[in-house]
Amino acid sequence: MEKKFPLPPFNLETALLKVQQGEDAWNSQDPHRVAQVYTPDTEWRNRDQFINGREEVVLFLTEKWKKEQDYKLKKELWAFTDNRIAVRFEYEFHDESGDWFRAYGNENWEFNADGLMQRRFASINNVPIEAKDRKFV
Prior knowledge:
One of its GO terms (molecular function) is kinase activity. Helices cover 26% and strands 45% of the residues. The chain has 3 helices and 6 strands.
């Protein structure tokens, strides 16, 4: 059986670690690496998309990072309890035309007993920015 430490129930130290692990995985821009922290039947809502299972996660992230180039993400723990964590985040990227954006959002995460994320619900908004205004260089 797969386990992704730390396992729930979370305390402040383990919740912070889980958030940092998530940030590191997403910043790798490796869809297969990211997908391994989710249950095989994971359930997502990402903006207006509904994604189910690791295979769909890989497809979604592969397409995402083709469009969102030079992606850099920062996550911040917002709250936690038992097997749930809430984060706020922001990330920057540019599109194929070279236009830069900063995305702001919130995610709610729910983990199974083995530390795999079984549900992820994300609300995200993009704001156009100038390259000179980037925070994550």
